[in-house]
Write a structure and sequence with these properties.
Layout: H1 16-37, H2 39-46, H3 54-68, E1 73-77, H4 84-98, E2 103-108, H5 111-128, E3 145-147, E4 153-158, E5 171-172, E6 176-179, E7 182-185, H6 186-191, E8 198-202, E9 207-211, E10 213-229, E11 234-237, E12 242-245, E13 249-252, E14 261-262, E15 269-288, E16 293-296, E17 299-302, H7 314-317, H8 320-337, E18 344-348, H9 356-363, E19 374-377, H10 408-420, H11 424-431, H12 445-450, E20 460-468, E21 476-485, E22 490-495, E23 498-499, H13 502-516, E24 520-524, H14 531-545, E25 557-561, H15 567-579, E26 583-585, H16 590-598, H17 607-619
Parallel strand pairs: 1-18, 1-19, 2-4, 20-24, 22-26, 24-25
Antiparallel strand pairs: 3-4, 5-15, 6-7, 8-9, 10-11, 10-15, 12-13, 14-15, 16-17, 20-21, 21-22, 21-23
Helix pairs in contact: 1-2, 2-4, 3-4, 4-5, 13-14, 15-17
Length: 642
């Protein structure tokens, strides 16, 4: 039992009221304990339906690290529907419980999702907040934008919701803006769609300067307050609109007090009093690039809006203008609203190599390479054991909230089904968190789809195995079976590629040869030269002793090939043969297709491409070109088993 100072040993001696008091104290003690353990502990403490999983524990620890100041920026990529949004909502409640005076901005790609998340968190505060001293402030009725009585609160916005500033955070249209050509009312500026910049304030230099306006909109009619200054000019805006004061920073207009100084141009203004304005007024929003502020009637006010659509799906992710709008929103709108050293967490299912996380990694880098972001990439199937946050081995599946922890076979089946039902690009991006560019690929997905021939109407004349040994067992060792048909086409039959030491890929190659009655194994000899042939010889002997090889099987010959050109140059003639319908795919080979459609020169070694190139070049010897393989005369062909 949890120990509480002063708790009597004999509970039977307590009255009902005393017992209730001690039970309440026990609950409060437990409530405080789980806060120290992180948002996942809080979630399971308050909701017994929540299941813990390894990847959720990693996400929860990331929040603890941010709160402790060990890292300020965390980026997280996982497949969809693995519980990250759920935990993110609990993380907001956890952060509020730890820091009840903090204002939190929760951004989603879709406005509907933003409202849904805000509603969930609001309900959490209503259901559980009293246990942690959290209470909604009086008048906080908006679902997506509310405050706590302690001063903190939540602002939930969707980039894809268009111009979605605070619902009651706008400026009256009669307020004057300063442009290079003079002053104009805010209403005229918006109605005439003027493209002139407006006067803004650079806090870094302390100077006023012209900045472009990236978005503008009439948002409707609102109740306003009027801020009167001692020198005459007044400001008409919603009570929640933020006004800059040199002493208190950004303050909502309704919270200004007589005597407060407002940053102004050409000089400061002193508040005389603030009072409600009569009736409803048409109000407007502006989004100013960079500084996220502008002068209205000479007084410095904050931006009103979040703008533009994000890449919600593949079509928008492929659109460069859409991606640029998201990046611009991130840099000019969101970052400008964050306090100095504010913790920032981006949780995203990847779509494109230049999506938000992709751009952040490109421009700011991850901590592993000396950059700013702690990047937690957790693909459906582990492909980088050295950097996997879960410490998984190559190919091990990601946990799922609806599949029991430790049910590896069920997890593997789940993710393999997702792979079989996804396009190659979607699997790589959404599920593996490793989006690849479509440009510069050796072949297209459409071409490989057209080359699938799962029931060939030809007789195989010769079957061979292609092997690309891995470098020290850390890369994928390519092991591919292929056959030459009587129609003079090569058919790719099976992929037995793996990550593992020499003995493992050598045994895989021999098993594959036995399974397809192959008469030849073609091996790249650049790595280790004769090592590959002797590894195959040892594997043959071992499997024969173990009884795994068919009785009477003819030992395949070994051909060592030594590449004298780069990988891309060697692969291009095979890509051309695919285009000419001289190579077909006779089995479900998603990983082979993924490498051919996504591999970019300079990235990790493409073992499956190399193995399929080796075996295809041998079976179609008439292929020639700048990428042809060179041979050492002494090692052209020999039988290492004799």
């Amino acid at each position: 039992m949890t120990t509480i100072p002063g708790l009597p040993h004999d509970l039977s001696a307590l009255t009902d009221d005393e017992l209730y008091t001690w039970l309440e104290a026990l609950q409060k003690h437990g409530d405080r304990d789980v806060l120290a353990q992180g948002p996942l502990a809080l979630a399971t403490h308050l909701d017994n339906r929540i299941e813990t999983r390894a990847h959720l524990r990693v996400l929860s620890q990331a929040m603890l690290d941010m709160e402790a100041g060990n890292t300020r920026r965390v980026a997280i990529s996982t497949p969809p529907q693995v519980g990250k949004s759920m935990l993110l909502c609990w993380s907001v409640l956890w952060w509020m419980a730890r820091h009840p005076n903090h204002r939190i901005v929760l951004c989603s790609y879709d406005q509907g999702l933003a409202i849904r998340n805000a509603r969930i968190i609001r309900r959490m505060v209503q259901d559980h907040g009293s246990r942690y001293g959290l209470q909604l402030a009086h008048g906080s009725s908006a679902v997506h934008d509310w405050e706590l009585s302690s001063g903190g609160g939540l602002r939930s916005v969707g980039i894809g919701g268009g111009l979605t500033g605070r619902s009651a955070n706008c400026i009256d249209g009669t307020m004057l803006l300063t442009t290079p050509s003079g002053t104009t009312t805010l209403a005229r500026y918006v109605d005439e769609n003027t493209d002139e910049p407006v006067l803004s304030y650079n806090h870094a230099t302390g100077q006023a300067e012209m900045k472009p306006v990236t978005a503008r909109q009439l948002t409707g009619h609102r109740a306003l307050v009027e801020v009167f200054s001692t020198s005459g000019p007044s400001l008409l805006c919603t009570a929640d609109h933020r006004v800059h004061t040199p002493s208190r920073g950004w303050v909502t207009a309704g919270a200004l007090r007589p005597g407060d100084t407002i940053t102004g141009h050409p000089g400061p203004y002193v508040v005389r009093f603030v009072r409600p304005a009569r009736g409803l007024h048409p109000v407007y929003d502006l989004q100013v690039e960079g500084h996220a502020n502008f002068f209205a009637n000479g007084m410095l006010v904050h931006n009103c809006a979040f703008v533009d659509d994000p890449h919600k799906d593949r079509a928008e992710a492929e659109s460069r203008p859409c991606r640029e709008r998201v990046h611009s929103w991130w840099s000019s709108t969101l970052l400008s609203r964050l306090s100095p050293k504010a913790p920032t967490c981006v949780v995203q299912t990847r779509w494109h190599e230049d999506d938000l996380i992709g751009r952040l990694m490109q421009e700011e880098g991850d901590t592993a390479s000396g950059g700013a972001w702690t990047y937690l990439r957790m693909p459906a199937l582990c492909d980088s054991p050295d950097t996997d946050p879960l410490g998984r081995e190559h190919g091990q599946p990601l946990p799922h909230p609806l599949i029991p922890e430790g049910a590896t076979a069920d997890l593997q089946e789940h993710w393999e089904e997702k792979r079989s039902r996804s396009s190659i690009r979607d699997w790589s991006a959404l599920y593996q968190a490793n989006p690849q560019p479509a440009e510069g690929a050796l072949v297209t997905e459409d071409l490989l789809r057209a080359r699938r021939d799962l029931q060939p109407r030809t007789r195989f004349q010769m079957t061979a195995i292609g092997v690309d040994p891995s470098g020290g067992g850390r890369d994928v060792a390519g092991v591919i079976a292929a056959a030459l048909g009587t129609d003079s086409r090569v058919y790719w039959l099976e992929d037995a590629s793996l990550v593992g030491p020499v003995a493992e890929w050598a045994r895989a190659a021999i098993r594959l040869a036995a399974g397809h009655d192959a008469t030849l194994i073609v091996v790249e000899g650049n790595y280790g030269r004769d090592m590959a042939s002797y590894a195959l010889s040892t594997a043959w002997d071992s499997l024969a002793r173990e009884g795994e090889l068919p009785e009477g099987m003819v030992k395949p010959m070994i051909r060592m090939e030594f590449a004298k050109k780069g990988k891309r140059l060697r692969a291009e003639p095979i890509a051309q043969a695919l285009g000419e319908d001289r190579v077909r795919i006779a089995a479900h080979l998603p990983s082979v297709e993924a490498e051919w459609t996504h591999w970019q020169e300079g990235t990790e070694s493409p073992g499956r491409i190399d193995a399929s190139v080796l075996v295809t070049q041998h079976l179609l010897p008439q292929i020639a070109g700048p990428g042809q393989v060179g041979y050492d005369e002494d090692d052209l062909e020999f039988d290492p088993f004799e």
